[in-house]
Amino acid sequence: MAITTRALAFASRWFDPATVSSVFEPLVADWQREWHSANGSRRVWIHMHGLAAFAIATFVSSPAIVKTAPPPAVVRRVIACIAWFVTVIAVLLAIPFITESRTSWQAVPQILLTLLPSGIVLAFPFSMLMAVDVIRRERALAPNVARATALKLAFGAVGFMAIGHGFVVPAANQQFRLMITPRNVTPPIPGFRERSTLELLTDPSRQQPAAPYTPAGSIRRELSNRAVLALMPAIFVWLRWIAHDVHRPRRFWPLPIAAMLIVVIIGFFSSYWTGLLAESAWNLRPGTGYWFPVVIATLIGVARQLIASRRELSTGAA
Amino acid sequence: MTDLPRLSVTERLIIELLTAHEELFGLRMVELSGGRLKRGTVYVTLGRMQEKGYLESRQEPLPEGAIGLPRRLYRPTGLAMRILAAWKAAEQIYVTGANPQEA
User: Fold this and answer.
1) Which of A145, A208, A223, B80 could be disulfide-bonded to B54 (CB atoms 3.0-4.6 Å)?
2) Selection from A179, A157, A188 nearest residue A85 by Cα
3) 3-class secondary-structure state, position B57
C-alpha cells in the first residue's frame, strides 16, 4: 500500500489540486481497491500495472506542469539574484585577464565585453543555488508551483548554458585572442574551444577514431565538457532542492548559501580535475573524465533523496 | 448557430459505456472496453470530460473495513447524452444520405 500512498504524494507535489483530484486520486483509488481484492502473486502484477498506468498518466498530464506559471514577483526575484551574482563574479574573473593583457585603458571596455561571456557561463551554474533558495523562501507558493518554477529554471538554465558555452563563449574567446594579439603577429587560428558546438559536431575529423591526442579525441573532449557544463545548473537546482527537503536535526541545515556555495565550488572543481586526471591515468575514452562531477553529484543526490524518503516513512510510521 | 461540440473516439466510447451501465469507475471502463481504453490515459480523459461538462462523478462510499481512497464513479450528463445523440443522428444522415429538411 505504501507504493500507492507515495505515488499520490508524488502527484500532489507536482500537480495542482484539481489535476490530483480528477486524475490521480481516481487512478490510485482503483489501484488500491484492485490490490485489496487480489492476493498472492497477483498483487505484484497489480502494482506493476498500477505503476505503469501512474507513469503514463504523469507523462500525459505533464503539460499541466508546463502551464503552471510562477508569480511574476518570484520570477523577478530569481532573475535579479542570478543577474547580481553572475555579473559580480564575471567582472571579478575578468580583472586578472585585463591587467595581464596590458592594453590601453581605452580598449578595456571592449576586452571586458569579450571576457564577460566566459565569466558568466562559469558563474551561472552556481547561481542556481541562490535561485532555488529564492523559490523555497516563498512560503506562499503551492508545492506544485514551486516545483514547476524550479523545473523551468533548470530547463532554462541548461538552454542558456548550451547556447552560451556552445556559441557565445567560443566567439568571444576568439575575439579576445585577436584583440590581445600584437599587430605584427599572425592572428591565432581558432582552436577547439574557439569553435561553436555546431562547427565541432560537423567537423569531418569526427569520422576518425576518437583516440587521445587526435583531433577527433579533442573534439569529443570539448563536446563532453560543454555537455557537462550545460547539465550542471540543472544538477545544482536538484541538489539544493533536496538539501531543503532533507530535514536534519542540525542547526545549520540546509547550509547557509555562502557555505553551500563554497562547498559546491570546491566539490565541483575537485571532482572536475579528478575526472580529468583519472581519464589520463586510466587511459579512458576522451571526454569520459568530464562526466565525473555529474556522476558524483548524481550519487550524492540519490543518496540524499533516499535518506529523505526514509525519514519521511519513519516519521509517517511514527 | 452554435457548432456541435467535438467528440473524440475515446470520449464517445466512454459516454456509450456509461450510457449502457449508468455508473462506472475508471478501471471498470477499461475492462469493459475490451482494450480500447488504456488504464494510463483513461483518468486523464475522464478528468477532461468532467471539465467539459460531459461527465459528473461522485465518490463511492468505502465498504466496511476497506482502507485507502474511495473510488470515483462517473455518469454522463445530459449535455453528453445530447452531443452523442446529435453525432449519431449526423452519422445516420451521412450514411443513408437522407436530408433532414426533406423529412
Assistant:
1) B80
2) A157
3) strand
Mean local confidence (pLDDT), A33-45 = 89
CA distance A117 to A123: 10
Mutate to test the interface with A, among B30, B39, B58, B62 (most CBs of A within 10 A): B39
DSSP A166: I
**C-alpha to C-alpha distance for A114 and A179, rounded to whole angstroms:** 9
Amino acid at A6: R
**Contacting residues for B58 by C-beta, under 8 A, at least 6 apart:** B72, B73
Of B25, B47, B71, the CB nearest to A23: B47
- Residues from chain A that touch B26, judged by Cβ atoms under 8 A, are 26-27, 30
For A265-280, what is each residue's pLDDT tens digit?
Answer: 999 999 999 999 999 8
Chain A closest CA to B84's CA: distance in Å? 23
| Min distance A32 CA to chain B CA atoms (Å) | 6
Cα end-to-end distance, chain B, whole Å: 21
Q: Do A27 and B26 lie within an 8 Å CB cutoff?
A: yes
Which among B44, B55, B59, B60 is the top mutation candidate for probing chain A, defined by the most A β-carbons within 10 Å of its own β-carbon?
Answer: B44
How confident is the model over A271-317, as pLDDT tens digits?
999 999 999 899 888 999 999 999 999 999 998 888 777 766 665 54
Quote ipTM for the complex: 0.89
Average pLDDT over residues A189-211: 88
Amino acid code (one letter) for A314: S
Cis peptide before A254 (omega within 30 of 0): yes
> Does the pLDDT of residue B51 top 70, yes or no?
yes
Contact A138/B at CB under 8 A:
no
A154 near A237, Cβ under 8 Å?
Answer: yes
Give the one of A25, A30, A57 whose C-beta lies nearest to B27's C-beta: A30
